[in-house]
Automatic annotation (TrEMBL):
It comes from the Bacteria. SUPFAM superfamilies: Homeodomain-like. This is Transposase. One of its GO terms (molecular function) is DNA binding. Pfam families: HTH_Tnp_1. GO terms for biological process: DNA transposition.
Amino acid sequence: MKRTRFTDEQIIGILAEHETGAKCADLCRKHGMSEGTFYNWKAKFGGMTVSEAKRLKALEDENAKLKKLPAEQMPDLAAMKDLVSRKW
């Protein structure tokens, strides 16, 4: 996955600047990003606080870990079923 140059705290700070009245084009030029990136951030982090963003990140990480567990267990389960189904 592509790593970003900005932390969640920095992103929320940039969005807060926009909410106080700064123009999107000026913010993008100042921070060196595209307007598309800005609007993606706004869709994801709009109206969040830093603590909410950290909680969201933790939940996403936990969700990814839980999704990976069944994928790791499937080969083991298939091998066990194969052993059990054989006639001795």
